[in-house]
Amino acid sequence: MLALRKTEAVPGVVLTETAVPRPAGDEVIVAVEAAGICGTDLHIADWTGGYEAMTSAMPVTLGHEFAGRVVGGAGIRSGQRIVVRPSVVCGTCPSCLGGRFERCTSRTGIGIRRDGGFASRVVVPAVNCIAVPDGLDAEIAALTEPMTVAAEAADRAMIRPGARVLILGPGPIGLGVALFVEASGATDIVLAGRDDAARFACAHALGFPATIDVGDRPLAEALRTGGQDRAFDVVIEAAGVAALIPQALDVLDQDGLLVVVGIHARPASLDLTRLVRAGQTIRGSYRAPIATWSRVVDRLSAEPERFRRLITHRLPLSEALDGLAAMRDRSGVKVMLDPQMDMVAT
Ligand SMILES: [Zn+2]
Ligand SMILES: [Zn+2]
């Protein structure tokens, strides 16, 4: 079968034929119906740093945001439609024993350190599968993983009704955060980005008209020029740009909360005395607890057409490199790959 794989610890990925995997006793085999390309996949493909730990697992099939149908193995009936939590936990570390599986210290990521969903078939532990309703399209179901990341960031932002919220980085996570903070009661939501025309168009289509192109200006100046000079109750950083962290504190209100969900290649430098005097809080947000997954599936099922607007490209797996290019040049918001399209073609 065709698979998009990382074979060496250098820039590049390959589309290659690989053997159809076989499930072990506690695993199922999944026919992948839709798999989203994540910013992480682009970092891994371009080998920009931060993923050296996956070298020992290569060659490995990428893809950690996918939905499909169980077609074999134990524990789940064949035909069941599912999404897959990519985090395979050890079950024996103190976090796992305490029931905080999202904090497992010896985790293996599906699509990072074991074969993932950029292939027509993938083998995953049965316990990692979450059932989805038959009425939910595969491409919407495949948004579950990134939307759990967005929902977790929104939860950690502890939004109060009427909150004024700034989201830095209008990618799929930032846009998802907008949808979830709105549901939590935020009424004044601004998205800021840079060279993000396609993503701003998506924000507008989702019902978030307030977008600010920061360009090369300081964030506070760009917001002021855009008529957004009032301080924010909450800022959520989903851009992964370290230089934005002190600038985010500049536009955050006294006692405000900055939630950082972006993955940063560089350390940030902060004026901590200012932070102390302003009583501001910085909080990280990463993997969502398991309970969030069914909540997100319910939300996707309730508003599929709204979430579908996040998907800008639908491609067969054989055109995955074009999909990565659309992410790289920022013309894509969420790019969905469909491995079954290639099966029909051949
Ligand atoms: Zn991802
Ligand atoms: Zn563990």
Overview of the structural elements:
- The chain has helices spanning 39-46, 94-97, 138-141, 144-156, 172-183, 197-206, 219-225, 244-251, 272-278, 290-302, 304-308, 320-328, 339-345, and strands spanning 2-6, 14-17, 27-37, 60-61, 65-73, 81-84, 87-88, 108-109, 121-125, 129-131, 164-168, 188-193, 211-213, 232-237, 252-260, 281-284, 311-316, 334-338.
- By secondary structure, it is of the alpha/beta class.
- It has two domains: 2-143 and 310-345, Quinone Oxidoreductase, Chain A, domain 1 (Alpha-Beta Complex); 147-284, 3-Layer(aba) Sandwich (Rossmann fold).
- Strands 3, 5, 6, 9, 10, 17 and 18 form a seven-stranded mixed sheet that branches. Strands 13-12-11-14-15-16 form a six-stranded parallel sheet, with helices on both faces. Strands 2-1-4 form a three-stranded antiparallel sheet, with no helix packed on it.
- β17 (311-316), α12 (320-328) and β18 form a beta-alpha-beta unit.
- α4 (144-156) crosses α5 and α4 (144-156) packs across α10.
- The chain is globular and about 60 Å long.
- The relative contact order is 0.16.
- The structure holds zinc ion (2 copies).
